[in-house]
Structure formats: C-alpha cells, structure tokens
Design goal:
Layout (H helix, E strand, L loop, with lengths): L9 H14 L9 E10 L5 E2 L2 E2 L11 H16 L5 E11 L3 E6 L1
Parallel strand pairs: 1-4
Antiparallel strand pairs: 1-5, 2-3
Helix pairs in contact: 1-2
Length: 106
C-alpha cells in the first residue's frame, strides 16, 4: 500500500465515510456484496463564467475512479471488515453544485 501523508485530504474523506457508515448501522458482511459509489464534486468557481462553464474547465473532476473506490473501501474496512468480499464495484464521478458521496451496499 502506498504511503499517504496524514495531511492529505483523503484522510478526512475516509473518516467522514467511516462515521456515516457507522451511524447508518453498517456491519461486517459474511457474504459477497455489491458496492456502488456515486461521488459528486462541487465545481470550483474558477471553472465558471457568467454565461456558464468555461471551455477550458475539465470535463470530469479528480481523482481517478480507481482511487475513489480504494478510498471508500479503505474507509469502510473498520466498519464492515476486509473488502475481499466485494464481488462488484461500480464507481461514478461527476460535477455538481454541492459535493457528496453516496455509497450503496447490497
């Protein structure tokens, strides 16, 4: 596993997801599960003009979807156990007016 400095924003993201999962009552899973992650990022004001989105603004936000999936699964590890029982993983990312991450586990 790659080293990530404690000051990196991913740590706060992981902590927020872990807290939300715990509050939602998520428990360790013994059977294969499907995880669907929908990450919406607030578009920075620097991407906008009075008439809309700048032509030079990126079409999709960072980070890569594989890194998003890894961050969410790492955050859930303390709540639902090892992610080796994840049989299906779908990760989507997009821009929105407000940032949010929705995780569905079935």
């Amino acid at each position: 596993r790659a080293y990530v400095p404690k000051s990196h924003p991913v740590h706060a993201y992981r902590q927020a997801i872990a807290i939300a999962a715990s509050v939602a009552g998520l428990r360790e899973q013994a059977k294969p599960v499907s995880v669907v992650i929908d990450a919406v990022f607030a578009r920075p004001k620097s991407h906008l003009t009075k008439s809309g989105v700048k032509a030079t603004a990126p079409a999709l936000p960072r980070p890569d979807v594989d890194n998003l999936g890894k961050a969410v699964l790492d955050a859930l590890q303390d709540v639902m156990g090892d992610d080796t029982h994840v049989a299906r993983l779908v990760v989507e990312k997009s821009w929105g007016t407000e940032g949010r991450t929705t995780v569905r586990i079935t």
